[in-house]
Amino acid sequence: MTAYPPAPPPGQPGQPGPPGAGGGPPVCPRHPERVAYVRCQRCGRPACPECQRPAAVGVHCVDCVREEARAVRPRTTVLGARVGPDNRPVVTITIIAICVVLFVADYVSPTLRMRLIFAPVLGEVEPYRMITTAFLHAGIVHLLFNMYALWIVGPFLEQMLGRWRFIALYLLSAFGGSVAVIALAGDQVWNIPTVGASGAVFGLFAAIAVVLRRTGREARQILVVIAINVVIGFVIPGISWQAHLGGLLTGAALGALFAYLPKKERTRGAIAGVALVAAILIGITMAVYA
Where do Pro residues bias regions lie (predicted)? Predict the structure, then answer.
């Protein structure tokens, strides 16, 4: 229970005294300068209009409402993500906004792309490019396709996994796509840059397929979408199937980790698993460049 300062003694100019002391009216514990005749139905203390909260019967003071809220067990999804009053897909919207802003900025300052784009030859000296390239796109169609795919699967995964696990899934899938490029591309494309969120999106595709199966939902549609996009990557020239494959495998691994961890180990196990996947990807990168 929060302790409050005693009401000022009766007779002090401009300050009412406590009830029963010199006949002074009751005052609000939070605002001793305010007279409060309405009392909280739970603790019985006076509460001014600012500190009153409507209840089923009468009113409660703001402190009792907060204590009751803390005592209520938070709701969670099947995979352990907390369900709060604000379930907007903040992370998904932020990623889309970053991609759009960088796409527009690329026209204003073309040198920006050169500082963020990834090619295998650049990854050893500036490894941050292996992730930043996932926020760049080659054209408006490329951007719209990837952002549409992200918007289709992102909000669901963000709600089911929670924000920090969703961020880890997206970034590591993007990183996994770049790692696959340097591991599988070969010398003939060592100097060719790759851009786009496709590797990260393929990671989300794989993760949502695992999550749907784990929660007993139909996953056939997303599996068909994955199969079609994998085939497109091999048929249409100019598409980095290596990035798609790397993102797909990374997303599948993280999706299985998040979906099948025991309930008691969800937080610690997820942190350890994310660290392990990141270490494996870094190890592959170092081995290839070595």
Answer: 1-19
Domain boundaries, the chain: 1-72, 90-289
Q: What is the structure's pLDDT at 22?
A: 47
Return mean pLDDT, the chain. 83
Q: 10 Å Cβ neighbour count for 262?
A: 7
Tell me: pLDDT of 18 over 70: no
Catalytic positions are 198, 244
pTM beyond cutoff 0.85: no
Confidence of residue 19 (pLDDT cuts 50, 70, 90): very low
Of 144 and 77, the structure prediction assigns the larger pLDDT to: 144
* Domain 90-289 class in CATH: mainly alpha
